[in-house]
Structures are given as structure tokens and as C-alpha cells.
Amino acid sequence: MQQSNFPKNPKDVINEDSDVLAEKHQIRNTSQSELFQNYTMVLSDLTKYYKDFLAVNGLCLGVKSYECFGLLGINGAGKTTTFKMLTGDEAISHGDAWVQGNSIKTEIKQVQKLIGYCPQFDALLDDLTARETLQMFSLLRGIPLQQCSSLAEKLALDFNFSRHLDKQVKELSGGNKRKLSTSIALIGDPPVVYLDEPTTGMDPATKRYLWNALCRVRDSGKTIVLTSHSMEECEALCTRLAIMVNGNFKCLGSTQHLKSKFAEGYTITIKVKKPENSSAAHHSETQPIEHFIRDNFPNSQLREKHEELLTYYISDKSVPWSKMFGLLEEAKRRDLNIEDYSLGQSSLEQVFLTFTKHQFTTE
Ligand SMILES: Nc1ncnc2c1ncn2[C@@H]1O[C@H](COP(=O)(O)OP(=O)(O)OP(=O)(O)O)[C@@H](O)[C@H]1O
Q1: Could you tell me which of 53, 14, 15 has the C-alpha nearest to residue 362?
Q2: CA 78 – ligand 1 centroid, Å
């Protein structure tokens, strides 16, 4: 069920990160001619309402060639809706977006010539072979008939499905269908490529093969925008990424920047003993350990308190591991209701989880 306090007005959104605000400021305050000179793709306050439900909220972004931009977010964050607006499949409610200076709102036919799109669900015809599929899309893209066959072979080689080129789509595995869909997005050499979860259903080795192929595409000068649920994928491919929550960018930057901004330091996760016959620890059980952490780790931040788990972020990297383990062992000895604990270096995955846990439940 939809939550009643979902922000209806783009201005209602709070807690935007400084990098997200800086990008907004830059897009809003730079002349269009300068933006189009610097960026292949520009989003300016891109917004989508489904009736009164705000699915995408005023996104501002500029993406250059040689850049792969990642949209990360859990289910329902607004990633596919963003793509659908960029491909002209959904009308834009407010704002606009441009590809090589062509407006999605007023020049969609021109924009469609400049983009390749791999949708989240393979839009393939079961009875055609992979070769026939590639040839059909090549013809639709205006490629001369005599070049279609060699192009199909080249794409199958680049994406490692040559062995399956003459199989019918219905005979292909899920991973090979994704490879076929991704290669379709590249037919006609479009300068901008949108990939909606390109590696869904792929085994780890195939995934890595596709990542390498996409790195080569990126390094040939194209602009790639992809959605993913995987931090690992974004680390492998993306020059920059944004974490999306409820239609908003929550943070934006290179994986390295996000790591140093949000994931430096340590994470302590403490499992608190639950009282008998209770599914969660209450304040009286968690209070002693909360006091202990506050007193002994002055820079600690309580990031999450969920049932019997407390997760702290320790930004002070100068404290040696031995000291931290020593303090946590002491807390265990003092019987502060600690059942168990773990101590580790913060990861990008934790940054992602920290941001996305604020996603409203809409289903
Ligand atoms: N046609 C529609 N009508 C009404 N609401 C929609 C429609 N399409 C999407 N939504 C809602 O908009 C929100 C964003 O959906 P969207 O598909 O863009 O999310 P997503 O980030 O791509 O999720 P996933 O990772 O599952 O693909 C969701 O709450 C979804 O239920």
C-alpha cells in the first residue's frame, strides 16, 4: 500500500547530499549552449508523476562521452521510469532531458536516432534466431542489407555468443538473451546507450565477460547509462553513479568518491541479547551497550537499530584494530547484553544499504 506521507511536491524532499545539490546548481545555472558543449546527455529537473504518485523527482545530471553513469537503487526507486522518459516511452511530467542538444520533449524522433536501449525485460521474438534478430534490428536502424550479416557476427563475437547465433531466441539461456539484448542496443553505433539491469540472470563469469565488453564500449567514447542493484557492477563499469531512493538522487559521484565520503572507517555490528519470549531487544536491553559505545568511541554514529541488531559507524580510522577488539571484548565480559559482535571496514555495499533503507514501502 502506498504511504500517505510520500512527498507530492519536488520541493518537499530533504537531506540531499552536497554533490547532488552541486550538480543541480550547475545544471540550473549553466547556459544550455555550454551544457550541450560539455555533456552528451543532460537531465534538468526531470520529473514523473503517475497520477499523484511522484516516481521521479527533479533529477539533474550531465553525462559526458567516455562516461558510464550508474543508477543504483532497490526495486521501485524510479530507475526504469527514468529510462522510459529518456526513450520517449513515458511522458515527462516536469523538466526535460537532452541528447546531443536534442530535447526529449520536442525532438524525440531525433533523440531516438541517437540512443540504444536494452530494456529490463528482453523484448525479443521467440521464433527468430539470434542472427535474424540482429539483422532485423540492423535493418530497422538503416544499416544496408549487405552489412547486416557481418555486423551480427561481430556483435556475437564481442559479446561471446557466436556459438548460439543460429539458435532460436526461445532456445537461448537467460544470460545469452541479455547479451543479445545488450548487443541490439549497440546496433547503428549510437553515441548514447541505456542499459536497464544488463547482467540480470548471468553467472559470475559471463557477467565479467559482459563487463569487459561494456568497458570497451565506454572507452570507445560512448555515453553509457545503466541501472543496477549491484555495487560490484558499478565499481567495475561506472565512472560515476547515483544512489536513487524514492525517485531522488541521494548521493552522486565516482565509486572512489562515495567510498571516501561515506564508507571510510569501520562498522561495528552488535547483536544484543533478547529477553526470553520476545522477538526484539527493547531499550532497557540496548541502553547499556549504547552508553558503552558512546563513551569509548566518541566519534561513533548509530547507523541502524533493527530488532536486536545495532550498527555503528566509526569514522576515526586512527584507532587500531587491536584496541577496538579489546574494547568490544571488554564490553562482552562486562555482560552488557552483547550476544555477539562483528567489526569490519565499511564497504560501498553498506553505503548503498544505508541510503536505500529509507525507501518508502509502496507495495
Ligand atoms: N505505469 C505505472 N503506473 C503507476 N505507478 C508506476 C508505473 N510504473 C511504475 N510505477 C511506480 O513507480 C515507482 C518506480 O518504479 P520503477 O519501475 O521506475 O522502479 P525501478 O527503480 O526501476 O525498480 P526495479 O529495480 O524493480 O526495476 C514504483 O513505485 C512503481 O510502482
Answers
A1: 53
A2: 6
Residue owning the nearest CA to atom 28 of ligand 1: 76
C-alpha span between 197 and 176 (Å, rounded): 14
A 10 A CB-CB count for 11 gives 9
Whether residue 53 has its Cβ less than 6 Å from ligand 1: yes
Instruction: Look at the block and give the residue holding cell 555482560.
Output: 335
50, 56, 197, best to mutate for ligand 1 pocket (most atoms within 8 Å of CB): 50
Backbone angles phi, psi at 16, to 5 degrees: -80, 140
CA distances from 363 to 50, 95, 360 (A): 15, 27, 9
- Of all protein residues, whose CA lies closest to atom 26 belonging to ligand 1? 75
Which protein residue has the closest C-alpha to ligand 1 atom 3?
Answer: 50
Q: Is the CB of 119 under 6 A from ligand 1?
A: no
* Residue 161 near residue 180, CB atoms below 8 Å: yes
Residue 81 Cα: closest atom of ligand 1 = 18
Whole-structure pTM value: 0.77
Contact 263, 350 (CB under 8 A): yes
CA of 81 to the centre of ligand 1 (A): 6
Is the reported ipTM for this assembly greater than 0.90? yes
Per-residue pLDDT reduced to its tens digit, 282-323? 777 788 899 999 999 888 888 777 778 888 888 777 788 888
190 lines ligand 1 (CB under 6 A): no
